[in-house]
Sequence to fold (684 residues):
Amino acid sequence: MKLPTLRETIFSLQAYLSAVLALYVAYSMGLPRPFWAMTTAYIVAQPWSGAVRSKALYRLTGTFVGSAVTVYMVPQLSNSPVVMVAAMVVWVGVCLYLSVLDRTPRSYLFMLAGYTAAMIGFSSVTEPSLVFDTALARVEEICLGIVSATLVHSIVLPQGLAPTLLQLLDKAVRGARNWMHDTLSGQTDEQKDRDRRTLANDITQLRLLSTHVPFDTGNLRWTAGAVRAMQDQVAALTPIVSAVEDRMLALQADGQALPQEVSALLRDISEWINAGALATHEDALRLRAEAARLTPAIDGRATWRDALLASLMTRLRELIDTYDQCLALRRDIRAGLQGAPLRPSRARRVSSNTVLHRDRQLALLSALAAGVAISICSAFWIGTAWSNGGSAALMAAIASCIFASQDNPVPGIMQFLTYTIYSIPLSALYLLGIMPAIHSFEMLVLAMLPTAFVLGVYISRPATVGKAMAFVFGFVGTLALQDTHTADIVSFIDAQIAQNIGVATAAIVAALFRTVSADRSARRIQAANWKELEILASSPRAPERHTYAARMLDRIGLLQPRLALAKRPDDVVAADALKDLRVGRDITELQRVRRHLPMAEATIAPLLASLAGFFRARQAWQPGQKTPEFLAQIDRALSSVASTAQHEGARARAVVALVGIRRAFFPDAPDYQPPHPTLEGQTS
Fold:
């Protein structure tokens, strides 16, 4: 065993102290299963105090909701075990469905509401008249564990989230900086692909981790708005850099060289970006002004190269502005950690309605798998009148819920089962050998300390947390599920068989119809992207750009690890998802400016309809229609917009968006040709 670090030692002692506190209060209150409080304290334990606090309220609420449903359900249906099991299956399934859809700490509310009902309901079937007492005891025991863990992790040497989150935040900014530098300096595609894959994954991890920031115990919680604003800005860099890369490729096609002044500007921007924290706002203003100066005017006579150059300069200005905002927000966060108040003007830039990707099919499959596993265990329980059959059904519910969000939950459930089995000898030693010889609470605490300390260290390590938590659940959970005062070898073996049968049933059911391959999961995520693009193109109203970009980038972060595991990397699913992100940004921009260009509406509307139809076909895994007429529609819209005399700003933004759409769908098409000046005069 690797010697524990100071941080691992502190966490292990915190977890044990909270577990002992919960156990002591449970014993003092005379609760029937005091080790449920200890088990809960370990389940709630997290390396960061903010993570414990953020989940505590949702866990408490879920526990109350689940117990209330059980108290209402069991007396009503106790005379019909089959109907009661069916009602319990429906309840757990609905709760699990909602939990998988919600990828924030709020998901714990639904998960706890589901398996708390199973925990209380299955143990009350034989004595329905005592269901209220049982529910009250379980709620008290679970709440003691949650409250004890929250108090100890918040008061005793609290571990702040700041070092980990800021390290990840700086890593994401560094990844964006590397990608921008590689793009502007013309590095290899392999290096750029690696940079952007890393960036997408870092942004997704950052977004999930930052949900705990408002609950942190240090000054970091006062910077929550700036942290969210900065991660939105880092996410916004992704489609911008991708667009810059594409325009540079287009301008240098067929051996053409970039204008000398443009090349000099790209070098200056790259140097400014590489300066990192030393990059100044004054330099950003100077570079932005230079990019604006090099932007050619767009009118009816503008050539395709003019349009490409205008698009490149526009995206470079956006890149400069966005990266400058990242640097400013990072300075604000650094000052906020030292106690300085944040400037409200920057805090208001937070995107409050960011939405993460939701996989409804995965959620439904998870709910069905949990229902089938619980039903199988319950049918065996009812058919054989097995005294511990309820424990099997309960463990099937818990195992199905814990691993529900994974594409393939079978490895996780099997690991849980394996280390639960490994814990059996230790559980037997304590339950049947050590605890009967213990006659005081102090002796119990000392007897459990060595085992609990070692397990706590392994829980604090990301590489072993899953195995350690399974071992803890098998060890302490066994004490919770049995009466420690009356346990014997027969009841112990019977309880162990029930628990392991429940977990094994959950694994078998998941393997039969819940498992989703990496290919299929990637296809679903890609199809969700195309559905989103169809909605953007067909929407009668201008969509919210930041919400779309955050959700799309979240999908890219989910897609990348699945594509790495896909069996057919040359499949259509491996297409560059960043292109979809760029197209979505361009469609959003076109939708937002079209109301200012009424003279071009007759050409913009058919183009958007064709885009919606294209992505509708892609959802059915059809190739989509990249027809000459589709290209002609883009060119007609480009000509119409460029020839519009009104609203110069909207005209320029629409041209940039149309250039992006043309490059995304027809990168190898002949250059756009502006209409003949005489024809232009007749059509205008």
